Amino acid sequence: MQDHPHPSEIIAAVARFLKDEVASQTTGRLSFQARVAANALEMMTRQLDTQPAAEAAELTSLKAMLSMDGDLATLNAELARRLGAGEIDLTVPGVADHLWATTLAKLAVDQPTYWGYRAALNERSDKQEP
Question: Which of 70, 88, 69, 90 is nearest to 79 (CA)?
């Protein structure tokens, strides 16, 4: 069995090639499309690297908050149902923290350089320090 390179390393190498070679040596639409493709590959690399742990944390949080078992899709649907029905809201312990953590985990994959994401991370870390 081959352990290296990890799929995320291969994807990252292709993204670097697209940005450093293709996009930098072309112009116009082809250069733009190469950068778009590289950005999509970089997003997939982040997803491969972070999604398993993020989904495990989200599932654990949902199970505890909802006091029920199920898969991620089922529990997210139940959370949405309860929020929509007004059965729970942000005053229920754990709800706001869960929503923030889940949102930040998704932004870490999709938009890790987004200023709002960075500000939210800093704000959360400031609140967690004694």
Answer: 88
State the Cα torsion 9-13-15-119 to the nearest 10°: 50
Residue 4 has what pLDDT?
82
Average confidence (pLDDT) over 97-126: 86
What is the rounded CA–CA span in Å between residue 121 and residue 46?
A: 17
The pTM score is 0.72
Q: What does the alpha-carbon distance between residue 43 and residue 22 come to, in Å, rounded to a whole number? A: 18
Flag whether pLDDT at 7 surpasses 70.
yes
Domain extent listing, the chain: 7-128
Tokens, residue 21? 């070679």
Give the per-residue SS3 of the chain.
CCCCCCHHHHHHHHHHHHHHHHHHHCCHHHHHHHHHHHHHHHHHHHHHHHHHHHHHHHHHHHHHHHCCCCCHHHHHHHHHHHHHHCCCCCCCCCHHHHHHHHHHHHHHHHCCCCHHHHHHHHHHHHHHCC
Helices 95-110 and 115-128, packing angle to 10 deg:
140
